[in-house]
Amino acid sequence: MPHPYPIREIARQAGVSEATVDRVLHGRPGVREGTVAQVRQAIADLDRQRSQLRLSGARFMLDVVMETPKRFSGLMRDALEAELPTLRPAVFRARYHVRESWQLDELVGELDRIGRTGSNGVILKAPDAPQVAAAIERLTARRVPVITAVTDVPQSTRIAYVGMDNHAAGATAAYLVGQWARDVPGVLLVITSGERFRGEEEREMGFRSGIRRYDPERRIIEITDTGGIDAACRRAVARVLDREPEVAAVYSPGGGNRGIVAAFDDVGRSYGAYIGHDLAESNRELLVEGRISALLHHDLRADLRGAAHAVMAYHGAIDGPRRPRPTAIQIVTPPNLAGVAGGVSG
Asked: How far is CA 309 from CA 4, 94, 162, 303, in A?
């Protein structure tokens, strides 16, 4: 009966003596059939639990590299630190390299530095740029796996993407706007943080495709390069409101919602529907106040759990490969907010 386990381990699993296990393994007589079956079952159980045994005492260092507003990096940090204890017996530690805005060469330099100093894996939220893809390839060559989060760099050697299906999220926003603002006159505003992030680009594309289906005559105005920062969003939306007499709805895939709402308040204007993303505290408040109609939510803890599993599989600590599926999209409104209050989103 071939097996990779010490006799002591099999005996402990089977609940019999080491001498009994030895007799079973060597086919010696004097052991009841039920006990033989018990030993065989113990070996089968150990096979199934082999990854758990491999993880005992395993340590992993993760580097989290993000270009994102502080409100979202806070959500990401909270989610990761809540999830890491659940990954035991493996032990994870995390280092954070987070800015609201990176110069591209500085971001690439940081990724290269991580490659030189060593890491077990990088969780990356960064622009989809050739320089970033090249840096990911250099990390891969050093056996540092990269998992993109929330927004992808698909033409790279990253081993996985974790997050929602961004195109589907945009289409969901279009559906909600089509239901809630169908009879409200005016244009639709889409406010993104910038054109460099594929995730927001996919959300915007999904929204446009949905509006073509649900309200094809409606005009869409896109505001870009706000960085998701409140002050920049407020200024950019104010310029549009100066020339547009009516706004039917707002879709904000890139954040800065306090600034967007403030721009409407500054001129005493309103809208028929407002769809945003993430459960940052400011967004929760706007939702409860009725200034946001719905937030599109996905569980960042599930994303980061999938990223950790992908790292462990890459290093052979668990059976793999692990390719996390996109996280389910939830539509959060004031009546169901309490049900997701313990979660975090992106």
From this structure: 24, 15, 11, 10
